[in-house]
Amino acid sequence: MGDHLKFSHHLKGAEFDGAIRQTFLGQAHIAGTGPEGKTCRECSLWCVIRSVKDHTGQRVTVHEPPGYNAESHKLAPFELKRARCNYRIANKAKRNVPHYAKACRFFEQNENPPLPRTEPKAKTPKKAKRAKVKHT
After folding, report:
1. Strand partners, 96
2. Residue 50 φ/ψ region, left for φ over 0, alpha for ψ in the -120 to 50 degree band, beta for the rest
3. Higher per-residue pLDDT: 126 or 99
4. DSSP category for residue 136
5. What is the tens place of the pLDDT at every residue in 58-69?
6. Could you tell me the end-to-end alpha-carbon distance of the chain, in angstroms, rounded to an integer?
């Protein structure tokens, strides 16, 4: 819960601040102000942006899903990694947001959102190593 917005212990909870308490640092706007039932995972702005060279040698910006946590991850194995909300706002916190965060009002539907996963991919069988034979 350390990634949520911080409140002073002097402030008292109110019935209308639930959405603000669910907002993560790095989100473009207040959580839950977007379409009902949507999450950041389904937004086209929630991604990893990389600059790569194409076949002509030109630099191209690529938007990619963040990938998955390893099996050894202590908190959430096989879960989608956090990614940055790439909506341009001056002085916005540059923090990664989890995939389950409620969508904000700047939500843009991603045509191919990454799928959440709780189990590892089915492993493909490895090729058998050929035994080394010594020729005498």
Report:
1. 84
2. beta
3. 99
4. -
5. 999 988 889 898
6. 66
